[in-house]
Design goal:
The complex is a heterodimer of chains A (353) and B (382). With 353 residues, chain A is an alpha+beta fold. Chain A has helices at 22-26, 47-50, 54-63, 85-96, 102-109, 114-121, 145-152, 158-167, 177-191, 196-221, 255-258, and strands at 4-13, 31-33, 38-40, 69-77, 236-241, 249-251, 260-264, 269-274, 285-287, 292-294, 301-302, 308-310, 319-325, 328-337, 351-352. In chain A, helix 7 (145-152) packs across helix 8. With 382 residues, chain B is mainly alpha-helical. Chain B folds into three domains: 1-130 and 230-280, no CATH class; 139-166; 288-381, no CATH class. A two-stranded antiparallel sheet of chain B has the order 1-2. The chains are: A alpha+beta (353), B mainly alpha (382).
């Protein structure tokens, strides 16, 4: 049968404190006696903090004249971590020949507190036993916590106090974050072990889910295969009467609505030029003062007849089919004429006036 | 807030610079004249070479503080002497560029400073400064905490930025009147600048694609075991020279050009020049085939497009396919032997394609060359 011991996980003050300072003397890290009552220090509300202080908390509870200090304990396997450490520390001190740890050890060798010594004569049950909690047996341990605390002084920083507590066996250093993570990771790795069949099943499920996802997405893509909007502006439009283009020049009234410049060139031809730049599809501007089309995106420039002459555009602007219906000019955007393919001489690429 | 303060401070609200006198005007004219790509890209390249050669000098804290202070006075102080520059710099679209330049300078300095220290110690036979440190740290808390702090700071900065500067929204889109100049998002302006020199298929698809494949291939073709885990330049000269030239000169500088110096009609303007939308710039470009047949041989272009472009096709084939082999046999034979043929040819192919950009730029500036290969019949122009 494994050895077990009790550790305090919760401590509180019942009503009726007479402010006698006894508990703070016994266990200053936990109890703080104020003007009207005694309170538990905030840091002592955690079980991790109170566990190493189990002996001194019990001492304080036993010493309370009005029995208002209550606590709860749990049973923990293993020997008491604070048992026997003071002997080791005392043995180490003379052998060390006097080191940095000497002041803390020297206190341990001093005469024990009379109250502590008296308590150690017998085993006691805690005050919380009346509340139904398990009884706690304390054993002969070591110097009182108050004595340890006094070695670093009242005003000492908390880490100095903690170091003294550790040195005298009252406290254990908490495992480092890294150690806790490693321990947790080890547990998880053990828990994650699976059989070959389980692995195969999981793998098949995962690939199946992935395939189902892609199949669904692929099916959804079908909806993009047909146009959502079938209403297109008619590709053939009337661009007004021939008489509106009597003067040579660039007519921009269909740039916004149809993407077409009607250009009456100096040689008498009237052509319909696409407003899409042949470089990367921006819409050039007609610069009247410079007599050129100039693209604002990469600086391509085109003469008034649509031929590219500057910038990166690789070929001239395209022309649309243009024809006369009576006195009206009709532009058919479904037919294009490209200069580099020699199509500008085709019938329909221009009309002569 | 800044919309109100800076113009008032700098211009008196009248579109005029805060300070001006004939000497300042002369300096501004000089800077404008030097800022055209023909001059400024070579100047930046020389600066890049000096930066790589003298990295042990300029990374010293005192030197870099002086350099940074001087650059900041020039960069931000210019807002006081020129209204056009002020308009460029305070435009909300361009604020990321200023942030990018500052952040990039800091990162470059951090890397070069450590490289200078490490290289000096390695030369002297000393261990590296952090040789005794553990080479592993925990993801949590070391990395996750840092990331969380960065996330909080970045979020705070973004919130502040969005409060102080208004979103640079423009008027509703109108196909009949595109903005002039029409600019891509700032991080694509290097690509847009490349498009000035190349056909969209090359600058918009092939070159960006090769940038991606080159980045993917990099860990597989760079098998130099030196310099693993610490900053160094002396041990990785070729890799760092090529990479930093491509990144700093052919990407970052082009972004700055596209942001600050490209104005209406995509014309090039100096930093202190008024963006005149009627500026006449002669940009007439000539194809290699015209040079060869018309100017060289004095005869008209052949009718057959492949005969017409034979010179360009031969040159392009040599540049892309034969030049890697020539390099392997001559100046890079040691590298070829170390890397093996597969690694070397992948590297060399990306290298010569990258070198095509400066080559084309120089030829455009010197000879107004338009395309090596001009085959609009097949939508193929190189």
């Amino acid at each position: 049968m494994a050895e077990t011991h009790q550790e305090v996980v919760k401590v509180w003050i019942a009503p009726g404190c007479i402010v006698c300072d006894s508990c703070e003397t016994d266990c200053p890290p936990v109890f703080d006696v104020q003007e009207e009552t005694c309170v538990i220090r905030p840091e002592a509300l955690k079980a991790d903090f109170t566990k190493p202080l189990t002996p001194s908390i019990i001492t304080a509870a036993e010493g309370c004249p009005v029995d208002v200090i209550k606590f709860e304990t749990i049973e923990v396997e293993g020997p008491e971590p604070w048992a026997g450490q003071e002997e080791a520390a005392a043995a180490a001190a003379p052998a060390g020949g006097g080191g940095a740890a000497k002041p803390a050890v020297a206190i341990l060798e001093g005469p024990p507190d009379p109250k502590w010594a008296g308590l150690l004569q017998t085993s006691h049950t805690s005050g919380s036993r009346s509340a139904g909690g398990p009884g706690v047996t304390i054993r002969q341990a070591k110097a009182p916590a108050e004595a340890v605390a006094s070695t670093v002084g009242r005003g000492a920083p908390p880490d100095a106090l903690a170091a003294a507590m550790v040195g005298s066996g009252y406290s254990r250093p908490a495992p480092s974050v890294a150690d806790r993570i490693r321990q947790k990771a080890g547990l998880l790795a053990d828990a994650a072990k699976m059989t070959r069949r389980q692995f195969s099943t999981a793998l098949a499920l995962a690939w199946g889910a992935l395939a189902a996802t892609f199949a669904t997405a692929g099916a959804a893509l079908q909806s993009f295969m047909v146009p959502k909007v079938t209403k297109e502006p008619p590709s053939v439009f009337r661009a007004g009467k021939l008489g509106e283009y009597a003067e040579p020049g660039v007519y921009e009234q269909f740039k916004g609505s149809q993407g077409v410049w009607i250009v009456h060139q100096a040689n008498g031809e009237i052509v319909a030029i696409s407003t899409t730049c042949t470089h990367l599809g921006c819409i050039p501007n007609w610069l009247q003062s410079d007599q050129k089309f100039k693209c604002p995106c990469h600086g391509s420039g085109f003469y008034v007849n649509g031929v590219n002459f500057e910038g990166p555009a690789p070929r001239p602007l395209e022309r649309y089919k243009i024809s006369l219906e009576g006195e009206y000019i009709v532009v058919d955007k479904s037919t294009k004429f490209r200069q580099e393919l020699g199509q500008w001489t085709f019938p329909g690429a221009s009309i002569n006036v | 807030m800044t919309q109100f303060i800076i113009p008032t401070l700098a211009s008196g609200g009248a579109g005029k610079p805060f300070f001006t006198n004939p000497a300042i005007e002369k300096i501004k004219d000089l800077v404008n004249a030097l800022s055209v790509p023909e001059f400024s890209l070579p100047i930046f390249t020389v600066g890049f070479i000096l930066m790589m050669l003298w990295y042990r000098k300029w990374t010293k804290p005192k030197v870099i503080i002086a350099l940074t202070a001087g650059a900041c006075v020039f960069y931000f102080g210019s807002m006081l002497i020129d209204y056009n520059y002020l308009l460029i710099l305070k435009k909300p679209d361009n604020v990321p560029i200023t942030i990018m330049l500052l952040a990039m300078g800091l990162c470059l300095w951090v890397a070069f400073r450590q490289a200078a220290i490490n290289d000096a110690r390695l030369e002297a036979g000393l261990p590296l400064p952090d040789a005794d440190k553990e080479d592993k740290v925990l993801v949590w808390p070391d990395l996750v905490y840092t990331e969380m702090i960065c996330m909080v700071l970045a979020s705070a900065a973004l919130v502040l930025w969005s409060i102080v500067l208004r979103a640079p929204l423009e008027s509703p889109a109108n196909p009949a009147g595109p903005p002039n100049p029409s600019k891509a998002p700032w991080y694509f302006l290097g690509l847009q600048e490349m498009l000035v020199y190349f056909d969209p298929w090359i600058a918009g698809v092939i070159l960006p694609g090769l940038i991606v494949t080159g980045l993917i291939a990099m860990p597989y073709i760079d098998i130099n075991p030196k310099g693993n885990g610490f900053y160094t330049i002396a041990q990785r000269k070729f890799a760092l020279w090529v990479w930093l030239f491509g990144f700093l000169i052919l990407w970052v500088v082009l972004i700055v050009f596209g942001t600050f110096l490209r104005g209406p009609n995509w014309n090039f303007f100096g930093p202190y020049e008024y963006w005149d939308s009627h500026l006449q710039v002669p940009l007439t470009n000539i194809n290699l085939s015209d040079y060869f047949w018309v100017f060289g041989l004095g005869q008209p272009l052949p009718k057959n497009p492949f005969a017409r472009e034979a010179v360009g096709i031969v040159f392009t084939a040599f540049w892309c396919l034969a030049l890697p082999v020539v390099l392997a046999r001559t100046v890079m034979y040691r590298m070829y032997n170390q890397m093996g043929s597969t690694r070397f040819y992948i590297m060399a192919f990306h290298l010569v394609i990258m070198a095509m950009l400066p080559l084309k730029m120089v030829l455009r500036w010197l000879f107004t060359l338009k395309y090596f290969v001009y085959l609009p019949e097949f939508n193929l122009n190189i």
